[in-house]
Specification:
single chain; 88% helix; transferase; mainly alpha; ATP phosphoribosyltransferase activity
């Protein structure tokens, strides 16, 4: 996934995006 590559540069932003996606799904 593209996220894996971004995690190395901006791990905090990715975590926030993942949390937002989970919130939207739920």
């Amino acid at each position: 996934k593209i996220a894996q590559g971004l995690v190395v540069h901006e791990p905090r932003q990715i975590l926030e995006l993942e949390e937002i996606k989970r919130d939207e799904e739920n």
